[in-house]
Structures are given as structure tokens and as C-alpha cells.
């Protein structure tokens, strides 16, 4: 689409509700002045979350333009609203327009052309990727972020090349080679991530063989995943933390975690005993709403850790208002896609809501789940009953432990073996893997009750049964 088409296509259809404000927030020396824009088909746009994200990324929001109407193909906003945005950005000397939603490459360029020269157009996915960039703290996180950004950039680069080419034909070969270069970098990042994912899969298999149950925490950003992961680990074995990324696991109490989005960008695994089971608890990345599916899928280590877990804890912030809770739940479930194990929803921060608030959160949760189509969100079938938890007040943790124990695949067996060196060796193997529930010495024999991971129990049973009398 040419520049002229872009400016004449938009039609200013009247909106049902809209608004503009220039409520300046405190500007710090390093923050970039920005205007927020949001459009919604249904309810009036709520700019609370995008403002928080913008602030976290270092922008000072100095005004906003909102509109309630259907999407305009040129600017997403209607033409008249887009011009209002342009005037506000110019009056406020904004350096960026932060758009609460995903803009197509064409819409991004059309808005950019309309705005004062030099004003950056940052849609929600780009803003999230900027925030992720600040948080990436490991090789896997860097690689995943690089892939997500390249996948985001490619269609925008194609659009830029097409626009340049329509105006200056001689730029075409140079543009094509830039597109090719990005495609090659995407392929190389995909290969590197395949290798990382293969390593992780091998490590998961080894951990299962060693008798560990794999528990993963999933959920929206800032839901309380890391806090709960720390609490579960602290309960048992604070010294024996390990990191899947090879970096040291952090110390501090479970609540010593900052209240800001995208705190965690690497998966971290800690040892814990949950419901009497030896588990490895993996904390993962929380994805926000509005990140394109392709970008989410770049974060393989998170998606794989959740998918492969024997039990995933889906952390849902009970202190959110019901509409936010539903929106975030839908976003988290669509990011997870599918799991091999079961999923226990955890209604976190229960201390922040009273009994009525908790009942409202449960109702919102159940309503959102009932609305989901299992064909589109197969993970719905794996969902168990939600458990309210407060790490701050230490409530609900025992119920959660019971629910995890109940959800984990379990086998039991009773074996009688002749008491001797071979039985003791088999018993010690079974102790190492945490599957010995009880041992009774009856003179010449030993009776062992086993309970735990089915494959480990079966192997322990075989070793004990094969122990020769000595
Ligand atoms: N009141 C209250 N606050 C909590 C509780 N659990 C977590 N929080 C707070 O919620 C905020 C977010 O917690 P995190 O554990 O970092 O959340 P997260 O899901 O790991 O966030 P990301 O890593 O950004 O995805 C922090 O300020 C925590 O202190 C709780 O039980 N009660
Ligand atoms: Mg976290």
C-alpha cells in the first residue's frame, strides 16, 4: 500500500466511547515521553496494564487516546482518532506512541507516517519484547528472545522493503538480502534452541529415572509463580537449589521478589518435597496477553517444562478483578497449549482478598474455564479443582501439597525379600529414589512397602524380588 492509500483509506467512523487525556505522570530523567493509544471492540479500553508495562520499560506516559470501535485496516484506530493521536503526540513532544494491541506491519508504518517525524510506534508485542530484553539472564533466555524478536521483525522488514521498492526500485536487491539475512538468523536460532531443548529433555529423563517428580509453575506474569516456587523449595531443602540454566539459584525469603512484570526470564529448578514426594519444581516465564503465538513459542524451555511436567501448577492471581482474571487465565492457557500431566490451578495472593473476593475469583475462574473450547485449549481437560493459596499468610499450602500428591502418577507395591546384602543394596537404591514407604524386618526376611513414581516402583520391586538369599 502506498503512502497516499494509507492516508485516504481510513474512514472516521463514530465511536461509541472514546477518550483523550493528558494526565502527566512523574517523568524521570531517563524516561522517554510517550502517549498510549488503545482500541477495543467491546468494553471501553482499560489502559491500566499497558501503562504499567510502559512504565516498567522506562517510558513516561504523558497522555492517552482511546477508542471503542471495530478495527480500521489502515491505523487500527479510526482515521479521525489517529489524527487526534497525532496532534496529542505533537503537542506533548512524545517520542513514542505505545499501542495497546498488535498492529499489522502496514498499520505500524501508516501510523508512523501520520505521526510527527521520529515518533516510534511501539505495539504491545514490541513493548513486551523490549521488557524481556531487559530481563534475559541466561544463554537460553537470550537465544529465545532473539528468536522471538526476529520472528516479530521479519514481516515488518518485508513491509519496509516492499514500501521502499515501490518508491525506489533500486533498493529492492538490498532489501531482499536483508530479508534473507533475517531468515538465516531465524533458522540458526531455531537450531540452537533445538539443541538446548534436546539437552533439557535428556536431563528431564535422567531426573525421572532418579525418582523425581517434575512439577512446573505456569501462569501470567506477576501472578506469584516465583514466590510459590521459592516457598515450596524453602519448605524442605533450601540449600539444595539448582538452576536449569546453570546460574546460581537465588537466596532470600519466598516473598523477596519484586512486584514488576517479567521478573523471571529463565527457567529455574529447585528440589522440594511436595505432598511427601521428592519433586523438582521448575519456575517458568510468565507470558502477558497480546504476545503473538509465534513469539510465545520461541520460549521453548518454558513451554517444554510445562508440557513435560507430571503436574503443572497454574498460578492465577486471585487479587485481580474478575475480568482481568479471566483475560489473564485465557492468555496463560493459550500459551501452555497442551500438557502431558495434570494441571492444578492455584489462586494466589488469597490474603489480599476477603472471603467474598475469593468466591468472586473462583466464580470468575470457573466461568472462564466453562467458556473454553477443549478443541482450542486442550489443556482444559487436564485442569483439576482450584486451590486458594497465600504464601504471605501461609494458607492453603497443605491443601496444595495434598492436591499435588493426588495428581502425581503413583504406584504402590509390597515386596518380601530374603534379608541380606542384596536386599539391602536394592533397598538403598529404592531409598535413594524416594519410593520406600515402610520397611518391616521379620528375621530372615524384609517386607518393603513401595510408593512413588510407577516406573521407579516397578524397578525397585524387580530388584528386591531378584535379591538372592545370602
Ligand atoms: N500479598 C501477596 N503477594 C504475593 C503473594 N505471592 C506473591 N506475591 C507478590 O506478587 C508479586 C509477583 O510475584 P512473583 O512471584 O515475582 O510473580 P511471577 O509470577 O514469578 O512473575 P514473573 O516472573 O514476572 O512472571 C511480588 O510482589 C510478590 O511479593 C502472596 O501470597 N500474597
Ligand atoms: Mg517469576
SSE layout and pairing:
Blueprint: H1 3-9, E1 18-21, E2 32-40, H2 48-56, E3 59-68, H3 79-91, E4 96-99, H4 105-114, E5 120-123, H5 124-135, H6 139-167, H7 172-209, E6 213-219, H8 225-237, E7 268-274, E8 277-283, H9 293-298, H10 300-308, E9 311-317, H11 322-336, E10 342-348, H12 355-371, E11 387-388, H13 397-407, E12 411-418, H14 421-432, E13 436-442, E14 445-452, H15 454-465
Helix pairs in contact: 2-5, 4-6, 5-6, 6-7, 7-10, 11-12, 14-15
Care to describe what's here?
- This protein is α/β, with parallel strands linked by helices.
- It folds into 3 domains: 3-132, GTPase HflX, N-terminal domain (Rossmann fold, 3-Layer(aba) Sandwich), CATH 3.40.50.11060; 196-407, Rossmann fold; 411-465, Alpha-Beta Plaits.
- Helices cover 45% and strands 19% of the residues.
- It contains 15 helices and 14 strands.
- The protein has helices at residues 3-9, 48-56, 79-91, 105-114, 124-135, 139-167, 172-209, 225-237, 293-298, 300-308, 322-336, 355-371, 397-407, 421-432, 454-465; strands spanning 18-21, 32-40, 59-68, 96-99, 120-123, 213-219, 268-274, 277-283, 311-317, 342-348, 387-388, 411-418, 436-442, 445-452.
- A 6-stranded mixed beta sheet has the order 7-8-6-9-10-11, with helices on both faces. Strands 1-3-2-4-5 form a 5-stranded mixed beta sheet, sandwiched between helices.
- It is elongated.
- Mean pLDDT is 84; it is low at 1-29 and 235-252.
- Bound molecules: guanosine-5'-triphosphate and magnesium ion.
Amino acid at each position: 500500500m502506498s503512502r497516499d492509500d494509507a492516508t485516504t483509506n481510513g474512514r472516521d467512523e463514530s465511536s461509541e466511547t472514546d477518550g483523550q487525556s493528558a494526565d502527566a505522570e512523574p517523568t524521570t530523567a531517563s524516561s522517554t515521553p510517550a502517549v498510549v493509544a488503545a482500541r477495543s471492540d467491546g468494553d471501553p479500553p482499560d489502559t491500566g496494564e499497558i501503562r504499567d508495562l510502559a512504565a516498567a520499560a522506562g517510558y513516561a506516559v504523558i497522555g492517552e487516546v482511546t477508542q471503542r470501535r471495530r478495527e480500521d485496516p489502515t491505523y487500527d484506530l479510526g482515521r479521525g482518532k489517529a489524527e487526534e493521536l497525532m496532534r496529542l503526540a505533537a503537542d506533548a513532544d512524545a517520542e513514542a506512541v505505545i499501542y495497546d494491541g498488535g498492529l499489522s506491519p502496514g498499520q505500524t508504518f501508516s501510523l508512523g507516517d501520520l505521526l510527527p517525524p521520529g515518533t516510534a510506534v511501539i505495539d504491545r508485542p514490541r513493548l513486551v519484547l523490549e521488557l524481556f530484553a531487559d530481563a534475559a539472564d541466561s544463554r537460553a533466555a537470550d537465544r529465545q528472545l532473539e528468536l522471538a524478536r526476529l520472528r516479530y521483525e521479519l514481516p515488518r522488514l518485508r513491509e519496509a522493503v516492499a514500501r521502499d521498492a515501490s518508491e525506489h526500485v533500486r533498493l529492492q536487491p538490498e532489501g531482499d538480502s536483508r530479508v534473507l539475512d533475517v531468515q538465516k538468523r531465524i533458522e540458526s536460532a531455531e537450531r540452537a534452541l533445538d539443541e538446548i531443548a534436546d539437552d533439557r529433555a535428556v536431563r528431564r529423563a535422567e531426573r525421572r529415572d532418579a525418582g523425581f517428580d517434575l512439577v512446573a509453575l505456569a501462569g501470567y506474569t506477576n501472578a506469584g509463580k516465583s514466590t510459590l516456587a521459592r516457598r515450596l523449595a524453602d519448605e524442605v531443602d533450601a540449600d539444595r537449589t539448582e538452576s536449569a540454566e546453570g546460574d546460581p539459584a537465588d537466596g532470600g525469603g519466598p516473598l523477596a521478589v519484586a512486584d514488576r512484570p517479567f521478573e523471571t526470564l529463565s527457567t529455574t529448578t529447585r528440589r522440594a518435597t511436595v505432598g511427601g514426594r521428592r519433586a523438582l519444581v521448575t519456575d517458568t516465564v510468565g507470558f502477558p496477553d497480546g504476545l503473538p503465538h509465534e513469539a510465545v513459542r520461541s520460549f521453548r524451555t518454558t513451554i517444554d517444562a510445562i508440557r513435560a511436567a507430571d503436574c503443572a501448577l497454574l498460578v492465577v492471581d486471585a487479587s485481580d478483578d474478575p475480568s482481568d482474571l479471566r483475560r489473564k487465565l485465557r492468555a496463560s492457557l493459550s500459551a501452555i497449549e497442551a500438557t502431558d500431566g495434570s494441571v492444578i490451578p492455584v489462586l494466589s495472593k488469597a490474603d489480599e482478598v476477603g472471603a467474598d473476593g475469593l468466591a468472586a475469583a473462583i466464580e470468575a475462574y470457573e466461568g472462564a474455564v466453562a467458556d473454553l473450547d477443549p478443541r482450542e485449549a486442550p489443556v482444559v481437560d487436564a485442569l483439576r479443582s482450584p486451590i486458594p493459596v497465600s504464601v504471605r499468610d501461609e494458607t492453603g499450602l497443605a491443601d496444595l501439597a495434598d492436591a499435588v500428591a493426588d495428581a502425581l502418577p503413583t504406584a504402590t507395591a509390597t515386596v518380601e525379600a530374603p534379608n541380606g546384602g542384596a536386599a539391602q543394596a536394592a533397598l538403598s537404591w529404592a531409598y535413594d529414589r524416594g519410593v520406600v514407604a515402610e520397611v518391616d524386618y521379620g528375621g530372615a526376611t524384609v517386607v518393603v512397602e513401595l510408593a512413588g513414581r510407577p516406573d521407579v516402583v516397578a524397578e525397585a520391586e524387580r530388584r528386591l524380588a531378584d535379591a538372592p538369599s545370602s
